[in-house]
Design a protein that fits this description.
The complex is a heterodimer.
Chain A: E1 3-15, E2 20-32, E3 36-40, H1 47-54, E4 62-67, E5 70-71, H2 77-87, E6 88-91, H3 103-112, H4 118-131, H5 147-159, E7 165-169, H6 177-193, E8 198-202, H7 205-208, E9 213-218, E10 221-227, H8 233-246, H9 251-254
Parallel strand pairs in A: 3-8, 3-9, 6-7, 7-8
Antiparallel strand pairs in A: 1-2, 1-4, 4-5, 9-10
Helix pairs in contact in A: 3-4, 3-5, 5-6
Chain B: H1 2-16, H2 18-35, H3 37-40, E1 44-45, H4 48-86, H5 88-96, H6 101-141, E2 145-146, H7 155-181, H8 185-190, H9 203-224, H10 228-234, H11 236-267, H12 269-272, H13 277-290, H14 292-324, E3 331-336, H15 340-349, H16 354-357, E4 358-373, H17 374-378, H18 381-388, H19 390-393, E5 397-402, H20 403-413, E6 424-428, H21 432-443, E7 448-450, E8 453-457, E9 479-482, E10 493-503, H22 509-521, E11 532-535, H23 536-575, H24 577-589, H25 594-631, H26 640-669
Parallel strand pairs in B: 5-9, 6-8
Antiparallel strand pairs in B: 1-2, 3-10, 3-11, 4-5, 4-10, 6-9, 7-8
Classes of the chains: A alpha/beta, B alpha+beta.
């Protein structure tokens, strides 16, 4: 299977010589095409930093990151934007929808900045909207939608450009449990049906249990890794909880 | 500790709201400069008559300053109110930490006090420095020489500035205290993250409102252009009704256009879904939506700025230009009938020999007969024009001059000389509307009756020229030239004698002026006869002084309105840039390039600034037609230069605010990470 994302001895330091924080301390892993990977860790473990450097929002201190074969740590200026525009899709905890635009326009934005024609935009949105069952909220504004709807609209925006990799930053963080479940099932379906590669950062074991693989991070290092294999989701969840107990994290950090 | 916190807050706000502070300083400086003009004139070498105008100007500028203070007061209160709103989270934090509302009010009080103090001091220093340069402008406008350049400080202007701005800041403090005491903690804390609700307007209602406002505007435009006479004739309040209609229509226009334009652009899918256009247009539309009233006020202020400033410049130009034309003689005496020799005696008695000063001269009589009125020379045309032109409505007695006296006069004024047969007459005129009327009458061969003789026109049109001193060019509405030697009934004849003269070439004109006017100052109505003397220099001084006055008022109001409107727009835009930062960060994350972001930001701000300006310019086109009709009575209709000057002022101030806003916003939304 093709490798979509490869991290090679990535390090990220903050601060200066006198007080150095190693947010990411020598992390290496691979994500294959069509995988759904969750990255778990407590607050301060470095998981958000990891997401930021993969998404080129932040720069690495050392090491290399390859996306679809290209070393993204060497990209500059406009190349970075192009990379983000064409290869990545983002889903954020607080949805990050523009509140002056309707759902339709929010989704369209991802395409219009790549100069898609209005007809093509319309076709794609209709298709994705049907898939994510948000066809009836397309003309609504963010303030008129529920949290779950907003998050699905954000997901639609993330996948509409057919990105190589979808990055999700605590996507269930602002949702109630019912909406969370719906969204995660959606992710599962996207992953299975469209072979979308998803990298999700979360501290929620329940959310992580929907992934095929979970990478645990602690103090900037990979601590453990779990594969779902043929387990049921319930078993996988229990396995995740076991690992968490192992790393001595507080229960409050988990659920 | 408390003061330390206040000072820290100020330091931060000065950085964040540089434009607010900049506007305060500019307001103070302009206020001082215009109130200090009086003291600038002290070092000018100007005549007595000019001093009177300077006095008048000072009084008028004082009065205008009250109005200006109100305008600035509203601006400052408005601005500080929404700066307070932006700081909701901060106040919320103070409240959760246990600081009482009273204490926060006190904190704000101290802040306002210091900001007021700093802006006053900085503004006054800049004002005092600026006013040193304005003395050059003042000298230029008064066409006087700077006798000696000294540093001038106007204590009265300074005190006035302190009083007015002190009062404004006091009101601001009260307003701030009230708005703090009304706040609820929960709203303060969540104010930063409250998501915008988009009010969608029904496009059909928008269309109807738009049509209503268009109709109102069309009527108002018509009323001030084609229908102008009807408006001016009906009643004075009619003009106000037209203005009010224009104002309401502007409000409705902004209200409806914000919805309508968006709908139109959304229809143009190719444009709407191109790059960030949908985002830019939505941002703009939501901003207009929430600021219809401010947009209206700004638009109307810009409209007033354009009209006031260009009219003022136009009046100034035409006054100055016309004062120079048509005044080929230096002095004009008007003497009661048959007392010509007394004029010389009057001067001799006061030690002035007129012949020492006066060179080429002409004496003439203006005879008016009871039965030679305007209606008699115009004939049947009179009734036609009477309803159209208010100036014709009064059927005055026509002035006449004999041809031999006229020819003497013509030589001095450089007019065409004529010879008339016993039954002929001619007309000298150059006031355009009257000229056209009289030409029509002459063409039709209108005969007039002068005493017992019937005269027919020698030419089929008027001779063009002036026959007396006047500050207004081409203002001769008609002088009838008749053959010599026609006797009239003294009972029905009104005669004025005139003497016009140039100063001798071999004397100093200033000396001559002094000699002639000094003696005349001693004249009083009680003298056994009274004559009237008017010199070319006096008329020039008057018109120069008046035009300077008009220029200053135009400049003063223009600057204040322009600064106020630009500042409101700039503050509105900047106060939203923290929200914008989030939006732009989000766009950045989905891969929008910096170039595209900057372009979106630029067009967003540019449209926001251009929209009210565009409407104001359309208003102004019609407003200026109206103004030019009104000021055409000052002589000129030249508008090109003044409009160019207005455009320059707009570009510098409005454009300056726009650029500052753009660069400040750009630095706010700039990505800190890359």
């Amino acid at each position: 299977m093709k490798t979509i994302l490869e991290l090679e001895r990535v390090e990220k330091y903050y601060g200066n010589k006198s007080s150095l924080t190693k947010a990411i301390n020598n992390i290496s892993f691979k994500v294959d095409e069509g995988e759904f990977v969750a990255i778990m860790g407590a607050s301060g473990s470095g998981k958000t930093t990891l997401l930021n450097i993969i998404s080129t929002i932040d720069r690495v201190t050392a090491g290399h990151i390859y996306v679809d074969g290209d070393d993204i740590t060497s990209l500059k200026g406009e190349e970075l934007n192009e990379f983000r525009r064409e290869k990545l899709g983002f889903i954020f905890q607080d949805f990050n929808l523009l509140d002056s635009l309707t759902a339709y326009e929010n989704i369209a934005l991802a395409l219009s900045i790549q100069n898609f024609s209005p007809d093509e935009i319309d076709d794609r949105i209709k298709k994705v909207a049907k898939e994510l069952s948000i066809s009836d909220v397309l003309e609504k504004y963010p303030y008129q939608m529920s949290g779950g709807q907003k998050q699905r609209v954000a997901s639609a925006r993330a996948i509409i450009t057919d990105p190589k990799l979808v990055l999700a930053d605590e996507p269930t963080g602002a949702l109630d449990s019912k909406s969370s479940k719906m969204l995660l099932e959606q992710f599962e379906r996207l992953n299975e049906k469209f072979q979308t590669t998803i990298l999700m950062v979360t501290h929620d074991a329940f959310a992580a249990s929907y992934a095929n693989r979970v990478i645990f991070i602690k103090d900037g290092k990979v601590f453990n890794e779990l594969r779902k294999g043929d387990d049921t989701r319930k078993d996988f969840f229990d396995a995740i909880i076991d690992v968490i107990t192992l790393f001595g994290g507080d229960a409050s950090d988990v659920l | 500790m408390f003061i330390k916190l206040a000072l820290k807050n100020i330091r931060r706000s000065i950085k964040d709201y540089a434009i607010y502070f900049f506007t305060l300083v500019l307001g103070v400086a302009i206020f001082y400069v215009f109130n200090a003009i009086e003291s600038q004139t002290a070092m000018l070498d100007i005549s007595q008559s000019m001093y009177e105008i300077v006095d008048l100007m000072t009084t008028i500028l004082r009065a205008v300053s009250v109005f200006v203070a109100f305008t600035l007061g509203f601006l400052i209160i408005y601005a500080s109110r929404f700066l307070i709103k932006r700081r909701g989270k901060e106040f919320g934090l103070y409240l959760t930490l246990g600081m009482g509302k009273r204490k926060i009010s006190r904190l704000l009080l101290i802040e306002t006090f210091f900001i007021g103090l700093i802006s006053l001091v900085v503004g006054l220093v800049i004002g005092v420095l600026l006013s040193q340069f304005t003395s050059v402008l003042v000298a230029n406008l008064f066409e006087a020489n700077l006798t000696n350049f000294t540093f001038v400080f106007s204590a009265s202007a300074c005190i006035q500035t302190l009083i007015y701005f002190g009062a404004i800041y006091l009101v601001v403090m009260i307003f701030n205290a009230i708005s703090i005491s009304r706040q609820k903690l929960i709203n303060l804390l969540s104010s930063a993250r409250r998501s915008e609700t988009i009010k969608t307007k029904n496009p059909w209602i928008c269309l109807v409102v738009f049509l209503i406002s268009a109709a109102m505007l069309a009527w108002a435009y018509y009323a001030v252009t084609a229908g102008i006479e009807a408006v001016l004739m009906s009643s004075e309040s009619m003009v106000l009704v037209v203005l009010a209609a224009g104002g309401v229509a502007t409000y409705l226009l902004f209200w409806s256009l914000s919805g309508l334009l968006l709908k139109i652009f959304m229809g143009l899918k190719k444009v709407y879904y191109h790059k960030l256009n949908s985002f830019t247009l939505r941002q703009f539309s939501s901003k207009i939506n929430t600021t219809v009233l401010s947009m209206t006020v700004i638009c109307l202020m810009l409209f007033l700025t354009i009209c006031i400033f260009s009219s003022a410049m136009s009046i100034r130009d035409s006054m100055n230009a016309s004062a120079r034309q048509n005044m080929p003689v230096d002095v004009e005496f008007e003497i009661p009938f048959d007392t010509a020799d007394k004029l010389e005696n009057f001067y001799t008695e006061r030690g002035v020999n007129l012949n020492d000063w006066l060179g080429a001269s002409a004496d003439y009589q203006l005879r008016r007969l009871d039965d030679l009125r305007l209606s008699d020379t115009l004939g049947e045309l009179y009734d036609e024009y009477k309803t159209e032109m208010p100036t014709v409505a009064y059927d005055y007695l026509e002035p006449t001059i004999t041809v031999s006296e006229y020819n003497q006069l013509a030589r001095l004024f450089g007019n065409e000389e004529v010879s008339l047969a016993k039954d002929e007459y001619a007309i000298l005129a150059n006031y355009q509307p009257m000229l056209e009327m009289r030409n029509r009458a002459l063409k039709s061969g209108a005969k007039i009756k002068f005493a017992d003789r019937t005269l027919k026109p020698k030419y089929d049109k008027c001779l063009e020229g002036m026959y007396q001193l006047s500050s207004v060019a081409n203002s001769n509405s008609g002088l009838i030239i008749i053959p010599d030697g026609i006797q009239t009934d003294p009972e029905e004849t009104h005669i004025i004698e005139r003497k016009v003269a140039k100063y001798r070439d071999d004397v100093d004109k200033k000396e001559a002026e002094k000699a002639i006017t000094k003696a005349a100052e001693l004249l009083s109505y009680d003298d056994d006869y009274f004559f009237y003397v008017q010199t070319r220099q006096e008329i020039l001084d008057d018109s120069v002084g008046l035009s300077a006055l008009v220029t200053f008022i135009g400049l003063y109001l223009g600057l204040i309105f322009l600064i106020s409107s630009a500042a409101i727009l700039a503050l509105k835009e900047l106060s939203e840039s923290s929200d914008n930062r989030e939006k732009f960060n989000m766009l950045r994350k989905i891969g929008v390039s910096e170039k595209m972001l900057n372009r979106a930001l630029f067009s967003q701000i540019a449209i926001f600034f251009a929209f009210p300006l565009l409407i104001a310019i359309i208003h102004s086109i019609f407003g200026m037609i109206f103004c030019s009709f009104i000021i055409s009575s000052f002589g000129g209709r030249e508008l090109f230069g003044p409009i160019l000057m207005t455009a320059g002022l707009l570009v510098i101030i409005y454009g300056g605010y726009f650029l500052i806003t753009y660069f400040c916003s750009k630095s706010i939304i700039r990505d800190q990470r890359n």
